[in-house]
Design a protein that fits this description.
The chain is of the alpha+beta class and about 180 residues long. It is built from seven helices and seven strands; from the N terminus they run βαααβββαβαββαα. The structure holds coenzyme A.
């Protein structure tokens, strides 16, 4: 993964999500520039609004990207309740640490964490002008889903269901289905 460009990069997924994570999330979000805040939340976000988000958000998992022990990026994985096992992920990397592969590494790890929790479909939202996120999502296999009036993009990644994955895993190598049925 390109994140290996960073010798000191560690991705942490603390379980269970500890309370002090909220403080680290808030400190990280406060270090984002106004433009990065807008790309992350799709509206202008004051420090107070970030504090409200950090206090209320309730993710199933968080992924922390630490460089030399300092938090520089974070991803939230939220499980969605609906007819399909689905998750939504969101990600941010501090401005001075962008373009070093950390965002892509966070997204890949967030997908893995969502999948481990049974998600069959992953959604992420992004502003149309967010070139970095578009690149990361496209490379990870997300496709654009029809959403709203085009001021916000929804990207969706379909994962094989657990049943299909299990069936594939147990498929005997070289089995010819036609002959097996005959
Ligand atoms: C989107 C974001 C997470 C990307 O993080 P990152 O660490 O810079 O991403 P990466 O380094 O993995 O870059 C992925 C690709 O995007 C490119 N890229 C990064 N920033 C870019 C920019 N501002 N404009 C154009 N391309 C950019 C990188 O060069 C890389 O492409 P390459 O492999 O061809 O060189 C980061 O910009 C960010 O936190 N933005 C604010 C929050 C946000 O937008 N969140 C997404 C919605 S939830």
């Amino acid at each position: 993964m390109r994140a290996s460009r960073h010798e000191g990069l560690e991705l942490k997924v603390p379980q269970p999500v500890p309370e002090d994570w909220r403080n680290r999330l808030l400190a990280h979000l406060m270090r984002l520039s106004p433009e990065s805040r807008r790309n992350r939340f799709f509206v202008w976000m004051s420090d107070e609004a970030l504090a409200r988000h950090a206090a209320r958000t309730d993710p199933a998992a968080v992924v922390e990207a630490r460089v030399d022990g300092m938090t520089r990026g974070m991803a939230e994985v939220h499980l969605l309740h609906g007819p399909r096992a689905a998750a939504e992920i969101s990600v941010s990397v501090e401005d001075g640490w962008q373009r070093r592969g950390i965002g892509a590494a966070l997204v890949h790890r967030a997908i893995r964490e969502a999948r481990r929790r049974g998600a069959e479909e992953i959604t992420l939202f992004l502003l149309p002008g967010n070139a970095a996120m578009r690149k990361i999502a496209f490379r990870a296999g997300f496709v654009r889903a029809p959403y709203g009036d085009g001021t916000l993009f929804e990207a969706r990644l379909l994962l094989p269901s657990v049943a299909v994955r299990r069936a594939r895993f147990h498929w005997p190598a070289g089995l010819d289905l036609g002959r097996a049925r005959a």
